[in-house]
Amino acid sequence: MAPRKVDTLYIFARDGSCLYLRKFAGEMKQDAKEVEIEKKNMFGLLFTLKTFVNSITPRNLDEQEKEPIRYFQTAQYQLHYMETASGLRFAASTPPNTRNMQVALGRIYRLYVDYVLRNPSYRVGTVINLAGFNQRVDAYVREIAG
């Protein structure tokens, strides 16, 4: 297995708006229109994949299997996914054959709670642009990359 490394991290609100996009590998697109298209495409992929999987999954899932999508893989990347009870969606793009990132996404969610939701200057549902959160996420991504 390849070492765990996050190329891109997305956080989406329940309504599909992208609250956070952070690139750790490659160049961030400079054209705002291209960035918006990427965000919409990623949310659309996640929404469609979840809808499809839920339509073909047996309904007798136990409590731990309520979310049948954890990741999928192509020849170029792997996309890890976690949805919270409140409808926040966390997605991390990694190199192929990266180990399961559910624990890492859970840790990033805890960072979100600690450094975003508990920040009195943050308005829920708005784009996340908080230096403390960015620093903690950057440090954690470096840590898991080994």
What is the averaged pLDDT score? Answer: 88
What is the radius of gyration computed over CA atoms, rounded to a whole number of angstroms? 15 Å
- The tally of strands reads 5
Give the percentage of residues in beta strands. 15-25%
What are the low-pLDDT stretches, counting only 5+ consecutive residues below 50? none
**H/E topology pattern:** EEHEEEHH
Terminal-residue CA separation? 13 Å
Q: Helix proportion of residues, in percent?
A: 25-40%
Q: What structural class do you assign from the helix and strand content?
A: alpha+beta
Quick one: biggest sheet? 5 strands, antiparallel
User: Order of strands in the sheet with the most strands?
Assistant: 2-1-5-4-3
Total number of helical segments? 3
From the spread of the alpha carbons, the general shape counts as globular
In short:
This protein is an alpha+beta fold and 146 residues long.
Task: Describe what you observe in this structure.
The protein has 146 residues and is an alpha+beta fold. The protein is 38% helix and 18% strand. It has three helices and five strands; from the N terminus they run E-E-H-E-E-E-H-H. It has helices at 32-56, 102-117, 131-145, and strands at residues 8-12, 18-23, 71-73, 78-83, 89-94. Strands 2-1-5-4-3 form a five-stranded antiparallel beta sheet, with helices on both faces. A hairpin with a 5-residue loop joins strand 4 and strand 5 (89-94). Helix 2 packs antiparallel against helix 3 (131-145). The protein is globular and about 45 Å long. The model has no long low-confidence stretch (mean pLDDT 88).
